[in-house]
Amino acid sequence: MKSLLAAVKKGKVLVSDGAWGTQLHQCGLTSGECPELWNVTRRADVFSVAKGYIDAGADMIETNSFGGSPLKLGRYGLGDRAAELNEAAAAISREAAGVDRFVLGSIGPTGAILMTGEVTEEELREGFRIQAEALQKGGADVVCIETMSALDEACIAVRAAREAAGGEIVCTFTFEKTATGEYRTMMGISPAEMVQAVKEAGADIIGTNCGNGFDGMVEVVREIKKVDRLTPVLVHANAGKPVLRNGVTVFPETPEMMASKVNDLIGAGADIIGGCCGTGPEHIRALAEAIRYR
Amino acid sequence: MNELVETIGRCVERGKINKASPFPGDMKGLDGADELTHQALEAGTDAEAILQACIAAMVRIGEKFGRNEVFVPEMLMAAKAMKAVTEHLKPFFQSGSVQAKGTFIIGTVAGDLHDIGKNLVSMFVEGNGWNVVDLGVDVKPEKFIDAIRKQPKCVVGLSALLTTTIVSMSKTVQEIRALFPSINIVVGGAPLTMEIAKEMGANGYARDPQGAVRWLAAIREAS
What we know:
The structure holds 2 protein chains of 2 kinds. By secondary structure, chain A is α/β, with parallel strands linked by helices. Chain A has helices at 4-9, 21-26, 38-41, 43-55, 70-74, 82-97, 121-138, 151-165, 191-201, 214-227, 255-260, 262-268, 281-292, and strands at residues 14-15, 60-62, 102-107, 142-148, 168-173, 176-177, 183-184, 205-209, 233-237, 243-245, 248-250, 272-275.
């Protein structure tokens, strides 16, 4: 297994991939379809998304397994296929990435909230274990636990992945700016609280994804760096906040706009930069160029 | 106001469901909304007074959420504490002495399976005295339309979390609008803004549960 930490510690800023959901929708995924099922039913389309990012110059790509927890898949009646669908997701990205680039096995939140009692810690742990194990089996180098908002769920995921896969772990949270100008997740967690808890749980790389465009991400990274200067930081930024034009959802930040802010993000302390909702291969190409020629 | 009624209100605001609930930490081991409501009713307290105190408590916590002073966990627990109260009050309402403010039909639009925000709005609107019909998640336009046919005087709430389902929400608004031109529709969810709500032809946009409650109050006033 390759070490993403070692690559980051060489001092070069690395480029990650862009959105998967919005790209799969462009390939014809309809709302209400299970994206992870496409890993077996529409393999070529999923591969084309992964390959698009590799061709654009990404040093790493994620996997089409964000909603691949047994709990989430269960909403489509596919809960018992979690291992199969996650392994297939990793295998597709592995094939697209080749041997040199990194594959980050994506694990998103389950959508269940522990404190309400709708799910137990044990159920969460077992689900994340199945996912992490399958992602590694399919060829993921690193597990990337992302879009988290609750500390308890994120820490259970990090620990389960650590025990199951044993490899390096990235963990990123989604923050929003509050009325008072601070950043918090929807569960009320600040970047500082996130850093302490997920590091204690065993995350090797921390960071933030979704919810914000580049400007917001610069502020979040600064807050992370205030409490932890050493742990490498990954950022997957949205292409701004979406607007609706003539019945179509449009993300306002163009590849050029995102690329123009790369230096601010690196200055704030980001080590790995990629995109989230609304970003495509062109955004990643522009980011990669801006990072390489800065 | 009776001190017990006030304490019940505080339990709702702080999300103290019952004695066994460990949340919030500083009220551990104390009686919660469940026990206190039972005690109050036993002592002959007016059900309507308890309800009004709890509605006011829900407004307070909802406003705090709007100011980002509390977050989703506190809202969820408050809604659960409110539910514990209304369970006790049900027999009094079924007798017809208290009328619902109206019917609110809510659902997460087709293609979107997220329910945390939708559930919060549903519970807060219900807690405010509305009859809520919760259609669940991944609700197709036809299902909204069927529900509206049964409750033609209702108000409709649409929820979405995914940026990719904004379009589905827009379609839902149009299909409802085509059949029920004068129906009031309010939309909400993380990717939405007032601008998007206007663009899709919704009557209102609520950025949080209390926003939905306020908007419904304004609609009711106007009609």
